[in-house]
Amino acid sequence: QAQLIESGGGLVQAGESLRLTCVASGRAFSSDDWGWFRQAPGKEREFVATINWTGQRTTYADSVKGRFTISRDNTRNTVYLQMNDLQPEDTAVYYCNLVANPQFPWGRGTQVTVSS
Fold first, then answer.
1. The pLDDT value given to residue 2
2. Which residues of 92-115 are buried (b: 16+ CB within 10 A; e: fewer)?
3. Which end of the chain is more exposed for a tag (fewer CB within 10 A), N or C?
4. With b meaning 16 or more CB within 10 Å and e meaning fewer, what string describes 36-75?
């Protein structure tokens, strides 16, 4: 059964860092592009970052460019999101998933809360 488990969120102060981890199981992992997404209260889910299957090409939302870094370990079926200089506007539930359909069923996400 295809499954995503996100972890690593927490409550931090502005300027601090967190590293999110996403582990995929139940389906092929290494040949696809992956992404991180986030959803703040009352808002639509939005794109944060993507990484291609080799890990050599990444894209970022303008709001996180220069602060966040996406990476992957195909041997561990894992995608990471290093988040530095976190700001209150980064507060959201963070999810990972394939960039293209058919996607995995969405996981529960991991809550990131940044206080000012």
1. 92
2. bbbbbbbeeeeebeebebbebebe
3. N
4. bbbeeeeeeeeebbbbeeeeeebebeeebeeebbbebeee
- E-assigned strand segments in 1-116: 3-7, 10-13, 18-25, 34-39, 46-51, 58-60, 68-73, 78-83, 92-98, 110-115
CA distance 74 to 16: 28
Cross-strand bridge partners of residue 49: 36, 60
Residue 22, pLDDT above cutoff 90: yes
pLDDT given for residue 84 in this prediction = 98
Phi, psi for residue 88 in degrees, rounded to 5: -55, -30
Residue 79 pLDDT: 97
- And the tokens for 50? 């993507």
